[in-house]
Amino acid sequence: MDQSPLAPFRVQLSIALSLLLTAAAWYLVTTSTAQYNEARFNRRVYELQSAITFRMQTYINALVQTSSAFAVTQIDREDFEEYVQRSGLIAKYPGIQGIGYTARIPAERLSDHIEEMRRDGFTNYTVWPEFAREEYFSIVYLEPFEWRNQRAFGYDMFTEPTRRAAMAAARDSGRPAASGRVTLVQEVGTEQQPGFLIYVPVYRSGMPTATVGERREALQGFVYSPFRAHDLFEAIRVSHLDARPDIYFHVFDSAEIGRESLLFGDMTLLKQNPDPGFRSLEELNVAGRTWTLAISTRPAFDPLWTRFGPLAVLMVGIAITGLVFATFRANRNERTANEKTAALLKQVESQNADLEIINEVGQKLTAELDLEKLVQSITDAATRLCKAEFGALFYKVTDEEGESLVLYTLSGAPREAFEKFPLPRNTGIFEPTFMGERIVRSDNITQDERYGKHSPHRGMPTGHLPVVSYLAVPVTSRSGEVIGGLVFGHSKPAMFREREERLVAGIASQAAIAIDNARLFKRAQQAVQIRDDFLSIASHEFRSPLSTLSMQLQIFRRMSESTDTPLTSERIAKGLNACERQVSRLAALVDDLLDVTQIEAGRLSFHYEHTDLVDLVKTIFDGFCESNEAVSCELYCEVTGAMVVDCDPFRIEQVMMNLLSNAVKYGEGKPIGLAIRRSEDGSQAIVAVSDSGMGIDADSQARIFDRFHRAVSHESISGLGLGLFISNQIVAAHGGTIEVNSTPGRGSTFTVYLPLLVDSQTSK
Q1: Which end of the chain, N or C, is less surrounded by CB atoms within 10 Å?
Q2: Are 279 and 273 in contact, with CB atoms under 8 Å apart?
Q3: Range of 27-41, 515-529, 609-623 with top mean pLDDT
Q4: What pairs with residue 281 in β-bridges?
Q5: Of 255-269, 411-425, 461-475, 706-720, which gets the smallest average pLDDT?
Q6: Number of continuous H segments (helices) and E segments (strands) in the chain
Q7: Bigger pLDDT: 487 or 418?
Q8: Contact, 485 vs 474, CB < 8 A?
Q9: What is the rounded distance in angstroms from the CA atom of residue 375 to the CA atom of residue 552?
Q10: What is the DSSP pairing of strand 633-637 with strand 390-399?
């Protein structure tokens, strides 16, 4: 028998120890389950917050891209409808009511605007509400243009305070801006939903937008989207929460929680469940407006084992070991949940950083039309997105020997790193990119079967930047033209994944649009400059003969009214000759302009016939010499027999007279010459017109056959700069060519090559 003093208390001690262990186990289980559920709830909060943020940023990016298209070029209704359909936003993401454009209309243009819209087929169109104001903002595009959206057609959103505040914020900041809670004009019947709108300003191309005043002055209108809040957030709820209906959430369009600011959710649920297990209030910034996301758990959020586990521990003390095991397992689950939450948080942060870069690029693409700055921004942003050590945009051009590639921009490495190496060629590695076939992504490009197959380097040249991970994405314009390729490299393997490939592909598509827009802007600037130069030249050229005609008419008038100076027949003949010369000069200018318009329209007429070119040129030359007696002219004919060509004699005479007249104008009074001969192989007739005058510099020779280009200013020598352009088009229509060879100060020679008929070739 145990004689220990504690023997009488053995049962009590065992019970006390059992109760103590049970209580300790109950406490551990209670604490662990609470922490586990909290980690699960936090993860769900991050998932929902990320889903809403990503969805709204997708809409904002689409609106920013749409605004960039409006800022660069004029978009008609059909183009806008096609663009919205191609974007796929309406079909993919329920909740967005459409994408629209509202135009800014000064009060003095309102009636003209309404007439234009009615002429376009909208006979009942008007801007409403109808009251006088300094400027109007009318919804002119809204796709899809179905019955609900048609209710908003012509509506001036600037007349409503909540919408006006958002529009003013977007206008003054140059950034997207969301409105507060409103009822959309599209809402009808009893099932009305709260809504909101997001606006992106569209500024007139070329106008400064550095300050608020400049942005207000440059405002052209707004690209915007209306949203039905219930449809939007219900779609997000179904896609993220429907399989696990254990939490519910409310969205308020301000930091204040109340029925007036409620965008989504049922206020009665908040009252029915005033003390949920977990609750979180998160603030979201959506296009400059703060939303409050209120998330609460439902009773079904807690698993059964977390609700009844502690009770089981108290009731079944003998299961302490099993419960301790469950506790350890709960602790392990807690750590796993925390790790997942941390990973998800890191992923959300990475996505937010990527979205910031994409948004930054979108804004730069909208505002920047300088091609060099634009492509550098694209290269830098794409390199940051895919986390490459270096990235480059190789620009595709075509030279006389075929295609070649030019290094255009570089990011992450100095330009000197490429200068001593040859440019990429269309090898097996590069061809899919620069032919626009597909994206190339490799974890280790040196192990690719296409690597090292081409001489002389058989791979990367010595000293080249180390490249193991490789990613190359074609940059293709809207017309299908391959502009070039974005190429990225990293010295470590497997650094580029599908995510990086998808991000860079998106940047490449935006880059192609932006580069196209920059090219269009540059061509538009060049066209305006050509127009201005032509108007300056034409006004001078037409003014001179008109001034002479006016002067002669004034002389005739004064002589006819004067008795001291009789108007003799000799004086009349002399004046009429001067007038006739000026009228001929005007007629020649008009003929040149008419020929250019016919060339541009493809309607310049030709009447071909078999013609002896030698006889034709001699006749032209003799007639020219008779009408220019003061000019020393020489004809060199190296041909015996006929040279027969299939030509329009009138048009060939037009070419020869242009060349001879130019030789006189630019020959500085020195002799001019005309030579006729056959080519060495006898297949072509060659006619050369030479002068010994001022000559043409190399830069002008490259553009001498362009419209309106002149080797000297119009103040020095008359002419519209169209003669050589027309001559070149005529010769080309005959299957021939025209060339210039000139040395400044020593004269010029223009040579025409025309194909001979077979009979003429064999009669040498």
Answers
A1: N
A2: no
A3: 609-623
A4: 294
A5: 706-720
A6: 21, 21
A7: 487
A8: yes
A9: 60
A10: unpaired
Give Cα separations from 482 to 365, 431, 438 (angstroms). 19, 12, 11
Which tokens sit at 570? 């000799």
Which residue, 736, 705, 634, is CA-closest to 676? 634
Burial class of residue 513 in the structure, from the number of CB atoms within 10 Å of its CB (0-12 exposed, 13-18 middle, 19+ buried): middle
Q: What is the dihedral of CA 565, 571, 575, 580, to 10 degrees?
A: 160
Regarding beta strands 684-690 and 747-755, do their DSSP bridges make them parallel or antiparallel, or are they unpaired?
A: antiparallel
* CB-based contact 638:672 (threshold 8 Å): no
| pTM passes above 0.90 | no
* Residue among 40, 24, 36 nearest 306 (CA): 36
Residues in CB range of 686: below 8 A, 6 or more apart? 675, 676, 677, 678, 679, 751, 752, 753
Cα–Cα separations (whole angstroms), residue 539 to 125, 390, 535, 542, 544: 43, 54, 6, 5, 9
DSSP 277: S
CB environment 135-168: b (16+ within 10 A), e (fewer): ebbbbbbbbebeebbeebbbbbbbebebbeebbe
Tokens representing 474 are 């074609």
Polymer length of the chain: 764
* Whether the predicted pLDDT of 493 surpasses 50: yes
Helix (H) or strand (E) holding 503: helix 498-561
Q: Are strands 177-178 and 195-203 parallel, antiparallel or unpaired?
A: antiparallel
Radius of gyration of the CA atoms of the chain, in A: 40
User: pLDDT tens digits for 577-620?
Assistant: 667 655 665 665 566 566 666 665 566 778 899 999 888 888 88
Q: How many CB atoms lie within 10 A of CB 517?
A: 23
- Using CA atoms, how far apart are residues 152 and 86, in angstroms rounded to an integer? 23
- pLDDT of res. 399: 46
Residue 175: closest CA among 395, 411, 359:
359
